Amino acid sequence: MDRYTYNRATSERLVRQVAASNPGKTGAWCAEKALWDLERDRR
């Protein structure tokens, strides 16, 4: 995900926000969702 944000801290923050909004989901799921959201918002 860092290739989209160019910043590790930003990437981690985005994943944490997704995790907070989706309790019970795995870390991998949260990372995929954050990446999907980034790609969607760049269109």
Verbal overview:
This protein has 43 residues and is mainly alpha-helical. It has one domain (2-41). Helix content is 77%, strand content 0%. It has three helices and no strands. It has helices at 2-5, 8-21, 27-41. Helix 2 packs across helix 3 (27-41). It is globular, with a radius of gyration of 10 Å.
Question: What's the helix and strand layout?
Answer:
Layout: H1 2-5, H2 8-21, H3 27-41
Overall mean pLDDT: 94
Output the number of helix runs. 3
Strand segment count: 0
Helical fraction: over 70%
Radius of gyration: 10 Å
Strand content: under 5%
How many strands, what sense, and barrel or not for the largest sheet? none
Q: How many domains is the backbone divided into?
A: 1
Order of helices and strands: HHH
Shape: globular
Question: Which regions are unreliable across 5 or more consecutive residues at pLDDT < 50?
Answer: none
What is the terminal-to-terminal distance?
Answer: 16 Å
Q: Structural class, from helix and strand content?
A: mainly alpha
Descriptive labels:
43 residues; mainly alpha; globular
Question: What would a concise description of this structure say?
Answer:
The protein is an all-alpha fold and 43 residues long.
